[in-house]
What we know:
Number of helices: 7
Number of domains: 1
Distance between the termini: 32 Å
Strand content: 5-15%
Order of helices and strands: HEHHHEEEEEHHH
Mean pLDDT: 86
Shape: globular
Number of strands: 6
Oligomer: single chain
Helix content: 40-55%
Structural class: mainly alpha
Amino acid sequence: MSNTPFPKGHILNDIWGSLTILVNELSSPFPIPPRTALMITEKRKVSHAHAMLIDDSLVNHMGWASVNQTSIVDSMVMLSLWTELSEIHSVPAGFFSSVAYDIRTDPSFMDVSVTGLEPFLLDKNGHPTIDLDRAVNSTPSLMRVVWDGALSGDYWDVEKIMLLPKTVNYSPELVLEHSERVGIEVEFA
């Protein structure tokens, strides 16, 4: 794949290329898929009802105002979107989680625009970088796409992704805790 930001032959070129093809195949903007749209509609209704409870009760108390309002588009909505797009396009959900989106939830629009790719790598200060010499961590979105691609058997080998920088917020203790919970053995090199 030409015009990739990584050195020739590096696994990140394959990942970058696969995501670029995916982004080009998604028409932008596109309608929010049905299950995700229903979730957004329901969250919007609940948010409106909450705002009405606050307005109606402010004369007497602040109880309803203390319930934190959340964004309509939160991590669960994004997970729903990625999963639904995965089902529609027969591509692992991790690929869609590595794409950046602008989601309009206004009832008159309800659409999604692709705005690019999520960062792959972070430098020592936590800033996105494409310089492999400065990269000290992989982002969670990169880990989702590389592992979903490798485990699907359709994209790249696990051995190639083992050389990527460790995931941000990674710790051997956390890995051991999760491995014990699911009953697997882990070896550290």
